[in-house]
């Protein structure tokens, strides 16, 4: 194609973009006006006006936020259809004043063909055009001619494919924006039905995380009231998500999607420390459920072992065995300790009453008065509080650090070695690990909530004077919004759960996640070949099935690796193939002609070689460099590198590298990662598949 045709084509797209941005500015002005108008209404002061104001200001502000957030790259696609129509696809749907569609939202059914049409199945699309822009200026266009027979003879076709052009660009700290280049197999998973369970599997770099997040955005678009009202919980490596959402999917705002890592699902706790795989396997095993059940029924450390009470000159006594029997009676199997405290207290009072009667205390009042008298006494109340305190899951988990208790709880469930390993893990560190968070959640379910005086529930639809009214759209929106804002910290009734890196969710973690998705539909994405789980794989499958329940499953497999150059993925593939010769692997689509560098150096030269390699990569790639190390080496390697590279360089362990992506990677001591018991090869496969452009591996010898 000659330059003048290209210029003409770009100029034509520019005219459309000008129209779109002019309309956007108008919409923004009217949103700002509506917001102001809303505040003016507030001054009228009556209740109806306030409700109206609230709804108006909220909508206008939300609209303005969306318009601002989606400004960059607003229009990214154009379809020329067989019937002569032209359709523009973008981040938002925009209509002109006369209701002509200027842009179709990428999530709308009409936009599906943009992602799904292929030359074999053009779906009515003659030419698909990807438009790149910077601010309001068109910078580049790329075409795919999908149905040459239907194309008018003068239809220009520009460029050689948008996908490869996008993939060759360097990455910043966040993930790449894929909305303009979502591929057909990805789009099918994104638009899978909202109900049931959508399972997406695929090897490294196939876009699983990108698909999971775009699916959340799609569901919100498809049925906003259902998903925004109930909320979407997204679980995965949180740092990746936060950066991704900030830069790529701003429409997944705070009110609609809640982001958590497995270490932050329990209220008030944010754990980031990972246990060694052999400890994580014990903490993640379903056998821990029984271990914790025993702990949750056990006596509190240092609690009184007997009760002595002087009552009208007579000593009343309850011995340890008697107190234990009262606790056992008040706490039948399945009862929650914090919720049946009252029954325990009643048991103590009843035992004291029958003792007082047996002893024939003179002047003994009626049973009720006797009990009231005791309850009024501070020493008696102090005893009850110490004997059966309200327990927080953290208290009970800490008991596992006591060797004698742990042996008692774990006896017959865990092996001697496992008890020693677990004990050492709890004695060795006071901070909670990621795996501990699921144990806290289990304990929370076992202990129950402390009884509190019943409080009246707030009804979001209750208007002034107790009238239950739900009439206007504004009311409904207001109620849903309020419900979202008022979601308690341990909210569990999500409408949808998205689980990324699901291969690393342990059985105990599936129980924790499942508690939050009882009413939900699910999207679960993962790659079994990347799992760090070294425990029983069948137990893992069982726990997952239990969490997902009997809902219908929709399965999708992604087959193209968009991250790694073909040369880099060849090294990763060879590694995993040694352990799993029959594994289906994705195809890497992009070749750079640059092979990874694989160095073997004498141990004393490791430091200098790592520093040199990292500095070299910083010069060779524009974006980020990740230095990936075996877990025990991280701090040492970080010290070697000091401030080299600043923000552009990150030192992470092989476990922390999950889900991450860098332009260049220096992998330190891959042999040590491979040798880790249980999951070594799989962890190494993860580490080898993080780089987009350059990979240097450095193995020390001796
Ligand atoms: N259709 C696409 N167009 C452009 N880039 C894409 C596309 N799909 C995925 N990518 C890019 O490929 C990279 C890998 O995507 P992502 O991290 O979602 O893969 P993943 O399957 O979750 O990988 P892993 O299992 O290795 O963590 C990202 O940079 C992503 O932006």
From TrEMBL:
Binding site for ATP: 202-209
Domain UvrD-like helicase ATP-binding: 181-565
Gene Ontology MF: a single term: helicase activity
InterPro entries: DNA_helicase_UvrD/REP, P-loop_NTPase, UvrD-like_ATP-bd
Record-linked SUPFAM superfamilies: P-loop containing nucleoside triphosphate hydrolases
Keywords on record: ATP-binding, Helicase, Hydrolase, Nucleotide-binding
Signal peptide: none
Name of the protein: DNA helicase
Entry keyword Oxidoreductase: no
């Amino acid at each position: 194609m000659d330059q003048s045709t290209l210029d003409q084509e770009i100029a034509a797209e520019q005219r459309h973009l000008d129209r779109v941005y002019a309309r956007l500015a108008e919409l923004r002005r009217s949103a700002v006006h509506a917001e102001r108008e809303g505040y003016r209404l507030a001054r009228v002061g009556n209740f109806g006006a306030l409700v109206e104001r609230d709804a108006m200001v909220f909508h206008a502000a939300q609209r303005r936020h969306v318009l601002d957030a989606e400004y960059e790259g607003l229009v990214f696609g154009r379809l020329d259809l067989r019937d002569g129509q032209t359709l523009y696809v973008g981040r938002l749907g925009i209509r002109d004043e006369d209701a002509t569609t200027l842009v179709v939202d990428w999530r709308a059914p009409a936009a599906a063909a943009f992602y799904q049409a292929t030359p074999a199945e053009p779906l009515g699309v003659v030419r698909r055009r990807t438009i790149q822009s910077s601010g309001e200026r068109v910078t580049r266009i790329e075409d795919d001619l999908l149905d040459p027979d239907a194309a008018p003879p003068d239809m220009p076709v520009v460029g050689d494919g948008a996908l490869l052009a996008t993939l060759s660009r360097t990455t910043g700290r966040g993930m790449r924006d894929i909305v303009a280049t979502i591929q057909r197999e990805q789009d099918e998973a994104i638009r899978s039905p909202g109900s049931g369970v959508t399972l997406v599997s695929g090897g490294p770099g196939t876009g699983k995380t990108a698909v999971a997040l775009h699916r959340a955005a799609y569901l919100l678009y498809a049925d906003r009231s259902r998903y925004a009202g109930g909320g979407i919980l997204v679980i995965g490596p949180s740092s990746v998500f936060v950066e991704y959402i900030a830069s790529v999917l701003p429409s997944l705002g705070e009110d609609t999607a809640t982001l958590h890592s497995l270490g932050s699902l329990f209220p008030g706790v944010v754990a980031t420390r990972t246990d060694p795989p052999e400890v994580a396997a014990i903490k993640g095993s379903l056998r821990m459920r029984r271990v914790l059940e025993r702990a949750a029924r056990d006596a509190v450390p240092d609690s009184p072992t007997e009760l002595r009470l002087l009552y009208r000159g007579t000593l009343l006594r309850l011995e340890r065995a008697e107190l234990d029997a009262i606790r056992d009676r008040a706490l039948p199997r399945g009862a929650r300790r914090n919720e049946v405290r009252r029954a325990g207290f009643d048991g103590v009072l009843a035992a004291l009453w029958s003792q007082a009667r047996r002893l024939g205390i003179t002047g003994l009042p009626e049973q009720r008065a006797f009990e009231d008298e005791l309850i009024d006494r501070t020493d008696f109340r102090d005893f009850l509080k110490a004997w059966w305190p309200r327990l927080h899951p953290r208290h009970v988990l800490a008991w596992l650090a006591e060797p004698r208790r742990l042996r008692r709880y774990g006896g017959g469930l865990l092996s001697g070695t496992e008890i020693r390993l677990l004990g050492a893990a709890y004695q060795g560190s006071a901070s909670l690990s990621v795996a501990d968070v699921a144990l806290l959640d289990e304990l929370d379910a076992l202990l129950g909530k402390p009884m509190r005086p019943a409080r009246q529930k707030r009804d979001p639809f209750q208007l002034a004077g107790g009238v239950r009214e739900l009439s206007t759209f504004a009311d409904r929106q207001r109620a849903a919004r309020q419900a979202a804002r008022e979601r308690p910290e341990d909210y569990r009734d999500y409408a949808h759960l998205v689980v990324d890196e699901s291969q690393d969710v342990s059985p105990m973690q599936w129980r924790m996640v499942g508690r939050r998705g009882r009413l939900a539909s699910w999207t679960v994405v993962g790659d079994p070949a990347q799992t760090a789980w070294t425990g029983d794989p069948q137990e893992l499958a069982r726990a997952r099935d239990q969490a997902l329940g009997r809902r219908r499953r929709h399965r999708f497999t992604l087959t193209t690796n968009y991250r790694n150059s073909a040369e880099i993925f060849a090294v990763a593939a060879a590694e995993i193939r040694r352990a799993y010769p029959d594994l289906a692997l994705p195809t890497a689509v992009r070749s750079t002609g640059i092979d990874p560098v694989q160095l073997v150096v004498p141990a004393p030269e490791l430091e200098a070689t790592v520093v040199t390699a990292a500095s070299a990569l910083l010069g060779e790639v524009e974006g980020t460099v990740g230095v990936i190390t075996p877990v025990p080496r991280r701090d040492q390697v970080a010290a070697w590198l000091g401030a080299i590279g600043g923000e552009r360089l990150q030192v992470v362990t092989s476990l922390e590298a999950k889900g991450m992506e860098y332009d260049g990677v220096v992998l330190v001591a891959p042999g040590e990662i491979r040798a880790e018991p249980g999951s070594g090869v799989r962890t190494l496969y993860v580490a080898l598949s993080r780089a987009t452009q350059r990979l240097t591996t450095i193995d020390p010898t001796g």
